[in-house]
Structure formats: structure tokens, C-alpha cells
Amino acid sequence: MNDLLIKKTTASFQELFGSTPSKIVLSPGRINIIGEHIDYNDGYVLPAAIDKIICFAFEKNNTNTSKIVALDLDEEFEIDVTAKVQLTDTVWTNYIRGVIHQLTSNGFELEGVNCVFSSNIPVGSGLSSSAALECGFLFGMNELFNLNIKPIDIALMGQKAEHWVGINCGIMDQFSSVMGKENKVVKIDCRTLEYEYHDANFNDYALILLDSNVKHSLMTSAYNERRQQCEEGIAIVKSHFPEISSFRDCEEKHVLELKDKMTEDVFKRCYFVVKEIKRVSLACEALDAGEIEKVGQLMFETHEGLSKEYEVSCDELDFLVDSVKNNPDVVGARVMGGGFGGCTINLIKKGTETAIKSNLSKAYFEKFGIELKIYDVKIGNGTSLHTI
Ligand code: GLA
Fold it and tell me: What pTM was estimated for this model as a whole?
């Protein structure tokens, strides 16, 4: 599947610019096994890069103007890389503008490039196509101009580009897009950015994504609001328990004790965060021990919390999780990523997927009149150069 994408992108580059690209970069989307909305709350997360990617073809063009072509959208834009960068109404271009802004404001001197990109990461499905766009473009600039930016800094600059566009995200998406490894999940300590790879061995279970096909239009404002509520909550906790410096040091009892000092929403958000931080460590231990049913159970708990306490689910996603909850062949399911739409991630007994997929598609269409999209995911490598 990716071979075709690479061929198509390279051929279009040749057609549009009349030359062979000098660099081809592949940048993946990500899944997250567990640890949602805690990357910006000093928690741990357990994501992985996937085999759905954006392919970029690049060359320097020896001018000050970059020309970027989004093949799938049949759109393009030009940007003077020496001028002040501004946000525009064309959202996809803002991620690239954000990267250029990051590079120039960090003192890197850029020249123009020609770039064509094309993707098979579904957009708006919670698979972080924007992180793949930021990190892939940055990676390409790094390679073309020998900027010597370390992979971890590519992730951090990608995150800042996303902030510039307007969503105050944590580090998980960019980190996993850059640092992912085939057949590994990466446990990231979002407080220190230390990380360790664990085997993504789910034994008899397959990882299946069910895409609700509901796009998260509420996402930006609601996401930023959640983050603010958590900041408000932790400030209250710290003022009563000076020994606590972040959610990492909190126990459920601390938050419970302060329930009447917080608004109901702030309490619910904090209560979720403290429990979710614990769940990630438990899930990681269970994964290492091959106890996949335990991992799945924790995923169900996470969904419950994301739906009722963090309130980032929606009817469609709740339906998808509720429908598999009592099925003994599905050991875990939950909304994945920022929420308000996008995908659920499911651990489904190998051999039973076909029947489950077809029953769910039917039930989902009957209930919401929406086509369910289904992706079998493989865990792939982080952003890399493709040798032509
Ligand atoms: C989005 C953000 C991430 C993370 C998730 C929720 O994907 O970009 O930083 O907060 O939501 O876990």
C-alpha cells in the first residue's frame, strides 16, 4: 500500500517540477494503546507509530520561495521562507507555515524547496495526520539543509507548530510519529521525555480501529478547555498539598478530599487524570507479562472515564464501545486520541474479526445512518528517509 503511495508521489513530483526529488520522507500517524489526555498532565502514554503514512518528495529550488503541493487535495501554496509567517484560512497550509515559523524563529536559515506530499492517514480520525505533516516536513527540511536537529527536537518543534496553529496539545503525537519503531509501543514519560520501547505483542488479539466517521469539529476549543481545567485543578491540589508538584504525585484521595474546593467539571477531569496515569503503568506491566485481557480491561476503564469524567466521547463512540463490551471476543475498546469523534481502538480475538466487523457495521449504520470505516493497523517505524 505504501509502495503505491511513494510511486504516485514521486511520479507527480516529476510531472510537476520536471525533476527527480532529492529526498523522499515517510512520516506515520499513530495509535495509542492507553494514556489519553495525560501527556499534558505529566503522565505516561503508550503510543506507537502505524503503517499509515504521509509521503513527501522534496528538492531545493535555489530561491526564497517554497512551493508545496497537497496531491490528495489538489491544492498548492507558495511561501517566502524569509518573510514573517502568518496563519491563513487554509488549515493544512498552517501546519507547514507553523514548521517554517518554528525553524526561522529558532535561528535556522532556510531557502525555498519544492515539495509534493500525499497521504493514506485518514484525516480527522484521531490518527494524528497533523503530527505526521509537521514532523515529516520538518524532517525533510532537516535533511535538505543539514540542520542537525535531533529527532526529539523535531518532535518538540512539531508540537510547537501545532500550538501555533491553535491546539495546545501535549507531546504524544509528534513524539510517536518521530520515534516509533516497528512492532514496538513506546512508553513515554511526558514529564521528563524519557522513553522505553516495549514489544507490541498482543498474542491472540488483533488491533482494530473502528472509525466513527464523525469529525471532531469541537475538538480545538474543547481540548484547550480540558487542558485549562486540569491546570486549574492541579493548582488547587498544590495549594493544599505543597508536597505535590504534579498529577504524577497525586493519589485519588487528594483529589477526593478537595472535591468541594473545585467545580464539578474540574473535579471530574482531575479524578480521571490521576486514575489514568496509574492505568498506563498497569497496562504496560500487563502487556510485558502477556496478560492481554488485563490490558483490554484497563482500556474499557479508560473509555468509561473519557466518556463520563473527561467528557470527550460522543454518542457514536459510546455506541461502538458499548456494542463490543459484552462480547467475549473483544477484550478491550475505547475512544482513542483527542476524542469528540474519530476512532475507537479495539483488541479483538484473531479469527473473529470478520464477523464482528460486519455485525458492527450493520448495527452502526442502522443506528446513526453513518458508514463505519474499519482499519487493521500494523505498528510501523517513525519518520524516516526512503531510499529511492
Ligand atoms: C491529541 C493531542 C495529544 C493528546 C491526545 C489525547 O491527539 O494532540 O497531545 O493530548 O489528543 O491523549
Answer: 0.97
